[in-house]
Design the sequence.
């Protein structure tokens, strides 16, 4: 039995013994993680959004929505969202931004080099994707777990997979037609996971930093949480791909690899809460309650 | 077969047929609900909280935490929270209020007629409580459903039940000791359901209106989302039991009875989404995603 297998067996043993001394706390797992277990988010996957309240960083998931991510990269490169606005903040649901004049053909901002029509990318084949499974039951998906840093679902046949609607998930708004999203209208989940949206709309990534600047926005008082007057719109200063920013302005972040030993230990740390405060160590875990640690890349 | 049984059979049939024409939409269910399916929330269960941004209404659950609710009623009657503050807003977690000087024996506000020590009320026997079950699997509890207007869990033996930590749940903060809560320090869930707290702390009710005034507060930048300076504290003007307010100031609300036919239809409407927008009608439902409709009692 090799070291990796022995480790896996010990993790499984710890998982079977709630409160077992071999289960670490979240803080202990992070403190003991190895540098190579952290993966820098490539600059062409990192979207940088600036609003008056602060900066929001988002990681794109081209493996799950290649056409949408390609369009979003073009739109960011064109400065498409600069001067547009956050138009909607619906309590316990989503914040959404785009063009306030999107419905007015004569006034709306042209998509220029970006495509006006994309296929729906609600899910994809599992082929070739790594998968760290969670064993706990889930209300919505036959299987849940993590792929490449994102929470994902899989169907019972293990043939299709999709990015889940958890808190902080980034999606591409659409109208009635399944293929009516372009990526120009984006939303972020700011409430309890609206998992009924899974496989009904294209999810393209997630917020990795600064979500509090979105989640604490005043709620819109119109239908669906849209702001009722233009003065309530929250202006977007700029959205750019990190790769398109001058190096001095380019944020660098790394996330704990969801296919590392420390991430498996983190899952066990969250399932069996060894922190002194817990009377009942829980012994269960839901996919959207698993933290996905991100940190600034150390200088030098 | 009586009318009620026939109706139940039709509902079961509709549930078995995703997108079946006999499944109503949420809007249709509410429009067709009968007046007697709505229950007015008694004034001695309704807590009225006023802050500068607006009014928040909370329903207490004495069946689940009788000692805590009794203490909260006494504290409200004494004006305990008037002039105290919201001290914490942690993103995707909770907002919490109480006495900024709680840790300073010489400066803290006395609890007077309220008790300084209460038993932990983390769960209770199921005896005598009505239960509307959800059939979908849940990550944290053997069974989930609704009792008396609240989302609840039950264990595998069906012997204990507890109020779940869903968005809007009201709980009583505690220190390390399980019996260290008094109800003077209260929190509201403002993020994805932190279900690992279930059976680890006493839950006492839920927000039924105005949660947006809490959930959109600026996040605290200290550890656990506590505000770092007293100027950031959000003052509480007043918290009273509706029963203690003059009749002219007393809000009256009614909620859809969670043990009514319309509530069962609402569950099916949320499980099988017949709204035109849905491509995949879902066919699944998680307990914290079930809306619990509340409306103002009609005058006269």
Sequence:
């Amino acid at each position: 039995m090799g070291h990796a297998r022995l480790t896996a067996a010990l993790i499984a043993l710890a998982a079977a013994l709630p409160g077992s001394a071999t289960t670490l706390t979240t803080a202990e797992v992070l403190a003991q993680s190895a540098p190579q277990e952290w993966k820098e988010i490539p600059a062409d996957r990192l979207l940088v959004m600036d609003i008056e309240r602060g900066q929001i960083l988002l990681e794109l998931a081209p493996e799950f929505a290649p056409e949408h991510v390609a369009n979003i990269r073009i739109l960011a490169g064109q400065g498409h969202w600069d001067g547009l606005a956050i138009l909607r903040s619906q309590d316990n649901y989503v914040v959404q931004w785009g063009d306030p004049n999107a419905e007015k053909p004569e006034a709306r901002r042209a998509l220029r080099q970006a495509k006006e029509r994309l296929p729906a990318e609600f899910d994809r084949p599992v082929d070739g994707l790594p998968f760290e499974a969670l064993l706990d039951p889930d209300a919505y998906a036959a299987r849940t777990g993590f792929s490449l840093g994102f929470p994902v679902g899989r169907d019972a046949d293990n043939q299709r997979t999709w990015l889940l609607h958890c808190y902080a998930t980034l999606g591409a708004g659409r109208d009635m037609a399944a293929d009516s999203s372009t990526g120009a209208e984006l939303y972020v989940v700011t409430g309890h996971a609206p998992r009924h949206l899974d496989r009904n709309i294209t999810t393209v990534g997630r917020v990795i930093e600064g979500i509090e600047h979105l989640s604490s926005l005043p709620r819109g008082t119109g239908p669906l949480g849209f702001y009722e007057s233009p003065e309530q719109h929250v202006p977007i200063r700029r959205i750019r791909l990190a790769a398109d920013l001058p190096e001095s302005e380019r944020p660098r972040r790394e996330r704990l690899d969801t296919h590392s030993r420390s991430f498996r230990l983190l899952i066990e740390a969250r399932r069996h809460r060894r922190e002194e405060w817990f009377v009942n160590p829980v012994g269960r875990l839901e996919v959207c309650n698993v933290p996905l640690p991100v940190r600034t890349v150390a200088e030098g």
